[in-house]
Amino acid sequence: QVQLVESGGGLVQAGGSLRLSCAASGLTFSGYHMGWFRQAPGKEREFVAAISKLGGAKYYADSVKGRFTVSRDNAKNTVYVQMNSLKPEDTAVYYCAAQIGDWASTQRLDYDYWGQGTQVTVSS
Fold first, then answer.
1. What's the N-to-C CA distance of the chain in angstroms?
2. pLDDT digit string (tens) for 4-59?
3. In the 8-state DSSP scheme, what is residue 10?
4. Taking 90 as the threshold, does the pLDDT of residue 101 lie above it?
5. What are the start-end ranges of the E strands in the chain?
C-alpha cells in the first residue's frame, strides 16, 4: 500500500522559512517523479514544484520561483520543499504527490498517489 506522509507544516511569520518533508513507502521511490501542490480555502489545488525521478529536473510555479527549492533523497524515500521568504498568500494545505511517467508533470491529474497534506499558515 502506497503511503505519502507530509510533515513540517506550521505557523510562521511573513518572511520566515519552513521545510516540508514527504516520506514515501510502498513504492519504488526512485521510479516516481514527485510533486508538491497546495490548496488554499475556497481555491483549487495548484501546482507548486516538481522533481524528476533522479532529481535532475526541477520545475516551479511562477509564484514560488526563487523562494522555494524542491529536493529529494532517494536513499531515504523522501522529498522536500524548502520554503523561504514566505508570504501570507502561501498559506494553504500542502500536498506531496507521486507520478509514474516519462517526465515530471505540473498537472494535478497526472499524479497517481497523494498524501494527506500539511497545513502552512503565514501570518502578516
1. 40
2. 999 999 999 999 999 999 999 999 999 999 999 999 999 999 999 999 999 999 99
3. E
4. no
5. 3-7, 10-13, 18-25, 33-39, 46-51, 58-60, 68-73, 78-83, 92-99, 113-114, 118-123
Neighbours of 41 (CB within 10 A): 7
Sequence-distant (≥ 6) Cβ neighbours of residue 102 within 8 angstroms: none
Alpha carbons 100 and 73: distance in angstroms, whole number: 17
Q: Quick one: how far is CA 46 from the chain centroid? A: 11
What's the grid cell of residue 34?
Answer: 514527485
Q: Grid coordinates in use for 67?
A: 523562494
Per the structure block, which three cell numbers stand in for 105? 508533470
| Predicted confidence (pLDDT) per residue in 46-88, tens digit | 999 999 999 999 999 999 999 999 999 999 999 999 999 999 9
Rounded Cα gap, residues 99 and 62, in angstroms: 21
